Amino acid sequence: MLAFAGPQRVMLYASLFALLAGGLVCALFQSPRAVGDLLLDLRSFEVPGVVDSVEVGMRKRRPRPPVYCARFHSEDGTLVGRSCEPGGSFQPGQRVVLESRGAQARIRGTTLTPMGRMGGLVLLFPLAGAVGLLHVVWTNHRESRAARVGIPILARVTYFGDGKPVRKKGPPPTELRWSFIARGERYEGRLSLDTASEFDFLPSRDVIVVLYDPAAPGINTVYVP
């Protein structure tokens, strides 16, 4: 496998952070509750219940009211749980309508997660991290295959300069683009590295040697002597 460099490395770190940090937050706080809310939204049965106690679930910046969470039980005693809403309109001993599905239950009009309907969005962070990680690893794998079994060919440099910025601060990466003809077809490739000096291994900025996968010439990479 080739070393991760330039924007590819930045995307790798960002994907790992989203996957690990998002997964940790989901595992510790939101995931079971957010999934429970989704299941109850899809299908639930209403049963009578009673509020046992009310507590602050999450404080927010003023003027937004804090989120209050009410603990409850069903009148037949088979269900117990905790659900939340901004502002808090429930009182201990109050009779309420519960939405239930299996062992999951909440007071009608509330959510299991203190973050409300937006709480489910936290599930997108590990998903986005996983997708980004798979994309980076797969791209690197294709380039590695081209480096291992690729056929060398001369390619014309079509661009050498600043690439698309990947950081808010600091200089943009340096991008090299090229094109070549194989089997009567024109193919292109590109490589981004952190600085222009990392391309000093190239003998020329006009014509370079690239390696392309014989099974798929669109998969190609720069030859490094």
UniProtKB/TrEMBL annotation:
Domain of life the protein comes from: Bacteria
Keywords: Membrane, Transmembrane, Transmembrane helix
Transmembrane region(s): 12-30, 118-138
Keyword Transmembrane helix belongs to the record: yes
Name of protein: DUF3592 domain-containing protein
Species this protein is from: Corallococcus sicarius
Lineage: Bacteria, Pseudomonadati, Myxococcota, Myxococcia, Myxococcales
